[in-house]
Design a protein that fits this description.
14% helix
Length: 220
């Protein structure tokens, strides 16, 4: 069958349109996917100009740290106060300390936080009758070889400068002495201490943990 000239032209137009449609590139969205999880904030980088002590102040995990003596801080140290550093951008943490701002070093605000005044003197702190202790109590203790109850009997010997020795009276009769300076930091080699909340000093010695109430340590 012979097609008429108009029919041939019509079929040619339809074929051309079909080929043009097939040759069009697939449209893709240029909008990147939105992540449902925001990126985690980078941890604060403490400058090398400061000597950072502990893993939080006034308690472990807090954003501020006790600051030790270096050339950058020597003018800010005070025997009656802790020098504490906080990221300068963390105004809430700075305000919560209740201290006095004394300076700023490399993005760290330096705060002088007064220490608690001594509550007792040696002369005014009586001994428990029949012992050399100023007080006896049960303190929290956990670790290998320690009572399964999680409590250890202990006695404390306090001094006028607020340093103290806590003597643990363990069931095997061996005992252990925990020595503290006036700020509640352990003096024992291989041990570390941190303030847990506002009323407990926690001492870690290997796998052993001791929770010493500050009222037991300093009286009051």
């Amino acid at each position: 069958m012979t097609l008429s000239k108009p029919a041939v032209l019509l079929l040619g137009s339809v074929a051309a349109l079909s080929l043009a449609a097939c040759s069009q590139p697939e449209q893709t969205s240029s909008t990147p996917p939105v992540s449902a999880t925001p990126p985690a904030a980078a941890p604060f980088a403490w400058p090398a100009t400061l000597r950072v002590v502990g893993d939080g102040y006034p308690a472990a995990g807090a954003p501020c740290r006790r600051i030790g003596e270096t050339a950058a801080t020597i003018d800010y140290l005070d025997d009656s106060a802790d020098l504490v550093g906080c990221p300068a951008s963390d105004q809430a943490a700075i305000a919560a300390l209740g201290g006095t701002s004394v300076g700023k070093v490399d993005g760290v605000a330096l705060i002088s936080v007064p220490r608690r005044a001594p509550q007792v003197t040696e002369a005014a702190d009586p001994r428990v009758p029949g012992t050399t202790f100023n007080a006896v109590a049960s303190i929290g203790c956990r670790g290998p070889g320690l009572p399964s109850s999680g409590q250890c009997q202990a006695g404390v010997v306090r001094r006028a400068d607020r340093s103290a020795d806590v003597i643990l009276m363990l069931e095997d009769g061996k005992g252990r002495t925990l020595s503290f300076d006036a700020q509640g930091q352990t003096r024992d080699p291989g041990a570390r201490s941190t303030m847990t909340g506002e009323d407990t000093v926690t001492v870690m010695i290997g796998q052993e943990r001791y929770d010493v109430p500050t009222a037991f340590l300093w009286g009051g």
